[in-house]
Amino acid sequence: MDNMTFVLFGATGDLAKRKIYPALYNLYREGRMPEKISVVGLGRREYTDSKLQSVIKEALESFSRREVEPSGLEEFLEKFRYCIFDATKPESYDKLHQFIKDRESELDIPDNRLFYLSVAPTLIKTITEGLHESGISSNAGWKRLMVEKPFGSDLVTARDLNKKLKEVFTEDEIFRIDHYLGKPMVQKLESLVHANPMLKALLDHDQISNVQITASETVGVGTRAAYYDQAGAIRDMVQNHLLQLVMMTALYNPDKMSTSEIEAEKRGIMESLKPITKENMEENVVRGQYAAGQIEGQAVPAYLEEAGVAEDSNNDTFFAARLEIDNENWRGIPFYIRTGKRMKKKSTRIVVEFKCDGDEEALKDDGIEPNLLIIEINPNESMTLKINIKNQSEEKFEPEYITFSNVSATQPEAYELLLHDAMQGNETFFAHWKEVELSWKWVQPLLDEFEKDGLPLYKYPAGSDGPEEAHHLLKEDGHQWWYV
Length: 484
Ligand code: BG6
Description:
Pfam families: G6PD_C, G6PD_N. The protein is 38% helix and 22% strand.
């Protein structure tokens, strides 16, 4: 891997502490970092290098998946320097430029530069412009930009942001993070079919009844009301994570694909996703907001009672929808998606339900249930086949589950995989502009209608599986959510 400078905007922030420093540390421990790397942390606080290094050490002790070992720790921390920086001041960029160059010559490394923007969305354009105007991004070596979500807040703002970034960076140089694409199980989906012809036989269009994608959480809005009350589940989870999961699930790749083929395939899936319009929205979409309830025996308040939430907020904390991908592989097979805060259980999973053969009533009498392929992404990683086995004594069938589970402490975290890929310039598991644009395009009619309160907002008790209406969505088609 090339030697480089890693410039971290937002070095004193929460994401840096929880995810970025632990990810860098684990990469370092595994020898998956460049031989020489200069990490420049930026923030407005008046930190010194040693203050930043002690903050990093604490962050590792709290959040690293691997225990922090004294051996090598000093060498790791020594890679970090701190530069006081105000993104709105041009002189800050000149100072930063000199700072980066000095470290490059001190370490004798080429001017390859990776910029990571872990900052408020409002600063992304400002920083990109600053990098350009100061000449920091006019280096001779390679340059790359990693940006966190949200990428815009609707189709217009996303396009506008992208236009700005493209004035300074090419598409190949922009790494839009969707941490769901960094989850190990999501990354494995891409190769599952071509490595397992058995699955290719299983995942036959004529055999699949429906696909269900769930990302449920037990946490509430927490301390993020200022952002979340504007964003809602639709912007926070659906436009990015859930639609990326839809794309990754629907990727049909009997042969190994290159990054650009995956990108083209994903784009094709988004282009084939039938639009939800004002006219068909109510029959295909359920929007909800949590009321007070109990989670794991603890009483929790309603969304409207959470600190920072407007008392008459019509924001969604739950979203479910029926989707159809109108292409050869998936035409006629419903994709049900749902996500919500304060639900019964934390679970990110994909369930493929297979068709049953025979008369429905007779199957029921025999105890035969649909076969399922369950891919659990979070909190545990596993794959399960649900099959029917005859119970000899009762002459009835019972469900049995064949599970492959991959729970291991050595499992890398999403940010490790994503940082490593960006350092290597591998874009496979980042959100490409076309996907992002098509996702916003798909979501936009929903945003418009939500804005006008054009769709009912159903309440659901905290600790439940969401509003009843989300169950009706499937019942109407003769289906049910599996593993609620
Ligand atoms: C983030 C959202 O992108 O994803 C959060 O902003 C959400 O609201 C989180 O809680 C869920 O991620 P994970 O990895 O815990 O499923």
